[in-house]
Amino acid sequence: MIKGIGLDMIDLDRVKAVLERNPRFVERILTPKEEALFQGYRGSRQIEFLAGRFAAKEAYAKASGTGFGKDLSFTDVEILTGENGEPCFMQPRKSEEFVFVSITHTGRSAAAQVIIEANERRS
């Protein structure tokens, strides 16, 4: 059973401008493991990665119904990369949930969708 669906989209130029003004933006958005992945990219690919993770985390906050605030921060959500390059949702890991994430980029924007499904035991 689906518990929540979230969708977010962000302009790449906006992310680039924020990063140029405040290089610590990366630490505010990414976990240390995500930041290590980010550092492996250069130029526009770094911006795409950061924007994609930002959009995915926003989509998760929407799907979970909490939004970001006192109970959830950007670094509470971690999305790493699977062996085939796919985004893999790592945390917050709740045993009663499956979380599916998809991230896409165009020349101008990044978008992400998250679906949270209840992990119900079937008899």
TrEMBL record:
What's the EC number here? 2.7.8.7
Per its Swiss-Prot or TrEMBL entry, what cofactor is needed?
Mg(2+)
Q: Which Gene3D superfamilies match?
A: 4'-phosphopantetheinyl transferase domain
Record-level GO BP terms: fatty acid biosynthetic process
Show the GO MF annotations.
holo-[acyl-carrier-protein] synthase activity; magnesium ion binding
Pfam family, any one: ACPS
Q: Would the keyword Protein biosynthesis be found if you checked this record's keyword annotation?
A: no
As its record notes, the protein acts as a catalyst of:
apo-[ACP] + CoA = holo-[ACP] + adenosine 3',5'-bisphosphate + H(+)
- Supply the InterPro entries for this chain: 4-PPantetheinyl_Trfase_dom, 4-PPantetheinyl_Trfase_dom_sf, ACPS, Ppantetheine-prot_Trfase_dom
A Gene Ontology cellular-component term: cytoplasm
Which UniProt key words apply to this protein? Cytoplasm, Fatty acid biosynthesis, Fatty acid metabolism, Lipid biosynthesis, Lipid metabolism, Magnesium, Metal-binding, Transferase
* Residue ranges occupied by any 4'-phosphopantetheinyl transferase domain in the UniProt entry: 4-91
In which domain of life is the source organism classified?
Answer: Bacteria
Task: Identify the SUPFAM superfamilies for this entry.
Answer: 4'-phosphopantetheinyl transferase (SSF56214)
Which compartments does it reside in? Cytoplasm
- Locate the residues binding Mg(2+): D8, E58
What family is this protein classified in? Belongs to the P-Pant transferase superfamily. AcpS family.
Q: What does this protein do?
A: Transfers the 4'-phosphopantetheine moiety from coenzyme A to a Ser of acyl-carrier-protein.
Against HAMAP family, the record matches this protein to: AcpS
Q: What is this protein called?
A: Holo-[acyl-carrier-protein] synthase
